[in-house]
Write a structure and sequence with these properties.
This protein is mainly α and 320 residues long. The chain is 40% helix and 2% strand. The longest helix has 15 residues. The protein binds heme C (HEC) (2 copies).
Length: 320
């Protein structure tokens, strides 16, 4: 019960605060040398056990940091169990992963590198292989006093990921250029605020800042999407990806709680939801309005919100 009260409180405090959404900072501080090392690691399949999969295989930077598949493929053609979120702007998430199981990008990389369905490696093996490559051996030793370690691999990847931010026309608009977005996008933004989307999707990342229950106001719609997903091999090792935060806490009331995803670049990061069950942005908006707010949006309202969300697509500049 207190969760609903909290949610209501959040809802009103964001509605009435002046700036529930902030523009991306113009500059993010990062260490250039470490970021270049991280970039090399990011695109290198050496991170995977059989040298076939890199971070970029699933988080393709030409595809807004995703692969547009319902589930990605790891080593040996194995299919994943949860949709791949974007890496773009992930530095601004309060936690990482759909269930928020880790806070920092440095720590996050341990999961894909050792996940048997993804890169299937061990750090012992990875450090051994990296030490044999003179570029990695020399660069790690030059930049870190303790050379190649699990933490330093994560740190370099974090420094690179700090550069993956995507300013968009909407940021120009927030900074005061009233003509940066179209009239329809302005109307869509107004609806996004008025209807209450902003109570969960807010902050710099327009999401990524809190947990919320999927199906808050319409469990049937949520359960329908969830149940249809149970025929895949999701339940290996007792991890049911549809249960979200529950997997971490094992508290019943955390079932179906997920980190609210960022909406930056959302027009490009289809398919949608943690289980990739929704193919189009239009359908995502109308289903989520039902599931999260108990609202039946009209076609026109859905169209306008979709137009607004398109203004959140930005370009990433890869450091050289
Ligand atoms: C085989 C596909 C695959 C590979 C390879 C992969 N990832 Fe991911 N990544 C995923 C999936 C799936 C998730 C979501 C997992 C979850 O929430 O349980 C994810 C989540 C993330 C997140 C969290 C984003 C968020 O919004 O929560 C980051 C950051 C990330 N990956 C970075 C990386 C980096 C860096 C590498 C390389 C070391 C990498 N990934 C390799 C599939 C992949
Ligand atoms: C109560 C919190 C809450 C509210 C209100 C809310 N959302 Fe969300 N939204 C979420 C959560 C949680 C998810 C992830 C659900 C999942 O994957 O199972 C999500 C997912 C999404 C997605 C899919 C993103 C992706 O990458 O898969 C879109 C698009 C979206 N919301 C748009 C909206 C719009 C538009 C509104 C207003 C009509 C809205 N949301 C209202 C919590 C909320």
């Amino acid at each position: 019960m207190y969760r609903y009260l909290l949610m209501l409180l959040m809802f009103f405090s964001t509605l009435y605060s002046n700036d529930p959404i902030q523009p991306l900072p113009k500059k993010v501080k990062y260490d250039r040398e470490k970021a270049l090392l991280g970039k090399k690691l990011y695109f290198d399949p050496i991170l995977s056990r059989d040298n076939t999969i890199s971070c970029a295989s699933c988080h393709n930077l030409d595809l807004a940091g995703v692969d547009n598949l319902q589930f990605s493929y790891g080593i040996k053609g194995q299919k994943g169990i949860i949709n791949t979120p974007t890496v773009l702007n992930s530095i601004f998430n309060f936690r990482q992963m759909w269930d928020g199981r880790t806070k920092t990008l440095t720590h996050q990389v341990q999961f894909p590198i050792t996940n048997p369905l993804e890169m299937g490696n061990s750090f012992e093996n990875l450090i051994k292989t990296l030490k044999k490559k003179s570029y990695y051996n020399n660069t790690f030793n030059a930049l870190y006093s303790n050379g190649i370690t699990k933490v330093n691999i994560g740190d370099a990847l974090e420094e690179f990921q700090k550069t993956l931010i995507t300013p968009s026309t909407f940021d120009d608009y927030l900074r005061g250029n009233k003509n940066a977005i179209t009239e329809n996008q302005k109307k869509g933004f107004e609806l996004f605020n008025k209807k209450g989307c902003v109570s969960c999707h807010n902050g710099i990342n327009i999401g990524g800042g809190l947990y919320a229950q999927f199906g808050l106001t319409n469990e049937a719609i949520a359960k329908n999407l969830i149940n249809e997903n149970t025929d895949n091999n999701s339940f290996k090792n007792g991890y049911n990806p549809d249960l979200g935060l529950y997997n971490i806490t094992k508290n019943d009331f955390d079932k179906f709680y997920f980190k609210v995803p960022t909406l930056r670049n959302v027009a490009l990061t289809y398919p949608y939801l943690h289980n990739g069950r929704i193919k189009t942005l239009n359908e995502a908006i109308s289903s989520i309005a039902k599931a999260q707010l108990g609202l039946d949006l009209t076609k026109e309202e859905t169209f306008l919100i979709e137009e607004f969300l398109k203004s959140l697509s930005g370009k990433v500049t890869i450091i050289e």
